[in-house]
Design goal:
The chain has helices at about 1-10, 115, 135-145, and strands spanning about 20-25, 30-35, 45-50, 55-60, 80-85, 95-100, 105-110. By secondary structure, the chain is α+β, with helices and mostly antiparallel strands. It has a four-stranded antiparallel β-sheet, with no helix packed on it. It has a three-stranded antiparallel β-sheet with strand order 3-4-5, with no helix packed on it. It is rod-shaped. The chain starts with a helix and ends in a 5-residue tail after the last helix.
Length: about 150
């Protein structure tokens, strides 16, 4: 019975995909996204940024290391994954960087200094009152005819 339980739990486990755990935070200079990807090589990870959406995708493959093994328990998730994050428009897409170390992918998304810089906007005055074009023509015609004098 115990053997059947372990075999069913191992065999019923699909390898279609999984969702890695993510920690994301905002700093003064940008955004930092940490993705837990133990056992995944950097060659198996893709990072794309398009129209404000950062997508991290990849695959963890199940590779049997030795023949003759019969797994009693298999809790590691295998298959493809994809996580997407919508970022504000103040990011500098050209300076996005990523590092994979000790099974943790760290993606740094810096803020664009030009877009986050505080600006003072001046307000123009409304001293000059504009006349409609028809009134200007009438006034110009009257002064040409000498009626303005």
């Amino acid at each position: 019975m115990l053997d059947r339980f372990f075999n069913e739990s191992v065999n019923s486990r699909g390898f279609s995909g999984f969702t890695p755990h993510v920690d994301a935070c905002e700093t003064e200079n940008g955004y930092e996204i940490e993705v837990a990807l133990p056992g995944i090589r950097k060659e198996d990870i893709a990072i794309d940024f398009q129209e404000g959406k950062l997508t991290i995708s990849g695959e963890r493959r199940f590779e049997k290391k030795e023949e003759g093994r019969r797994y009693q328990m298999l809790e590691t998730q295998y298959g493809t994954f994809s996580r997407s994050f919508y970022l504000p428009d103040n990011v500098d897409a050209d300076k996005i960087s990523a590092q994979l170390q000790d099974g943790v992918l760290v993606v740094n998304v810096p803020k664009d200094e030009q877009k986050t810089m505080k600006r003072q906007i001046s307000i123009s005055g409304g001293e000059e009152v504009k006349q409609p074009a028809k009134q200007k023509r009438v006034a110009a015609t009257a002064s040409e005819n000498g009626k303005d004098k």
